[in-house]
Amino acid sequence: MIKHLRRRFTAVLMSLLGTVMLIVLGSVYVSMYRSENMNTDRIINFAMNLEMHKDNTDPPPQSPPDGIEEPPKDFEGDIHFDSFFFPQRTRQTRDRTDDISTGWISVTVDSSGMITDIFRSQQLYGSEDEDNMDAAAHAAAENILSNGNQKGIISVDGISYRYEMRDKDSGKVIVLLDRTNEVSTMTRLLVILAGIFALSLVVLFLLSVLLSKWAVTPIEDAWNRQRVFFSNASHELKTPLAVISANLDVITSNPDETVAEQGKWFGYIRSEADKMSRLINEMLYIAREERTDSKTVMAELDLSEAAEGACLAMEAVAFEKGKTLITDIEPNVTVKGDKESLTRTINILIDNAVSHSSEHSEITVRLKKSRGKAKLTVENQGKPIPKEDLQRIFDRYYRTDASRSRDTGGFGLGLAIAKTVAEKHGGSITAESDESRTVFTLII
């Protein structure tokens, strides 16, 4: 069950994180793609404006469209298209050809549909493939004229162009912009993002496995404790049932004897039945107290009186075991809480101290008001509790000695009940132990 739960947790977490990563990386790709398209459209628009005004008496636009910086001019007033398209370049570096493919080509078509001129921007001059460029542009223009679309993307001889076609008084003008670099850039970006996504999935998987282990650990611990408890409880129930069955066999094998003559067998049956009843009652009590919808009736009560009553009840038990119960209870210590559950908690702590203290030792119960709260301490002398067990002794079904003799009469639920009651009253319970003593402290 735990493994299945971890697998489901990992799968759900991977699905959520993977979806988030996919959305983030997809957004990056879409943003870059839109940016490339917008940049390409701005360049085509500016180039088209130049072509549309080339044969007119009106001067060309004095400023580029939004988002494009003013192109620099030399001493004759000529526009340096390479500096315009790549504004980061200076006069000394504008002749570099590393971005030559971003140049544009304009194709002029007369009114009869004949291609009359093919013009390449400055970036494309000096290329060894000028003839191939012109041929590809010619073929692209013919395809554009045949399909009649004003804008779009067209591929010719393995070259992808983004184009725009506009009508002119003397015919048409088609501007072509090579998308090779754009496609290459977006392809590389897609590969990089895919690699990041794949690597992220691996990292997320490892993190999910670790998180699933961390998240399921409390459930696994509770499951293991409950399984141990059921094993112990079944043993605790099986033993008295076996004793009861054996005693009944003895009684039925002597039908002629009176009840008085077989009194000890009935006594054994009564004793084991009482133990079974106590175990079942403790199980039901802690289950009821841990229910989230259970309500505890809170009222002002005299905790000093409750502590004195518990000590009086346990004093005879301690005396029978050769131990001395010492009390130091401050009078009139009042708290707001449930009298029955708090009295039960005090009884649990005193009974625990009596059961686990050394022979002929002293058990001390102290109660006083400290910083506006009631502080109850129960101290006994005996075998110390190991440090690794101090944090777990309040867990349900936990016993420091799994093979402990049934003589103590414990089932591993008493301290868990005490912790539940303390927390329900907004208080706390702690334990400390050394070689000389063990002290339980209840603060409410």
CATH architecture of one domain: 2-Layer Sandwich
Instruction: For the record, give the distance between the C-alpha atoms at the N and C termini, rounded to a whole number.
Output: 39 Å
Percent of residues in beta strands? 15-25%
Radius of gyration: 45 Å
Quick one: CATH superfamily of one domain? Histidine kinase-like ATPase, C-terminal domain
CATH fold group of one domain: Heat Shock Protein 90
Using the coordinates above, name the CATH class of one domain.
Alpha Beta
Kindly state the mean pLDDT as a whole number? 79
Q: What about the largest sheet? A: 5 strands, antiparallel
Helix-strand category: alpha+beta
Using DSSP, what is the number of strands? Answer: 12
Order of helices and strands: HHEEHEEEHHEHEEHEEHHEE
User: What's the number of helices?
Assistant: 9
Task: Identify the notable features of this structure and list them briefly.
444 residues; 51% helix; five-stranded mixed beta sheet; Heat Shock Protein 90; rod-shaped; 12 strands; alpha+beta
Describe this structure in words.
The protein is built from 9 helices and 12 strands. The protein is α+β, with helices and mostly antiparallel strands. Among the domains are: 99-178; 295-443, Histidine kinase-like ATPase, C-terminal domain (Heat Shock Protein 90). It has a 5-stranded antiparallel beta sheet with strand order 2-1-5-4-3. It has a 5-stranded mixed beta sheet with strand order 7-9-10-12-11, covered by helices on one side. The protein has a two-stranded antiparallel ribbon with strand order 6-8. A hairpin with a 4-residue loop joins β11 (428-433) and β12. α4 runs antiparallel to α5 (263-289) and α6 runs parallel beside α7. It starts with a helix and ends with a strand.
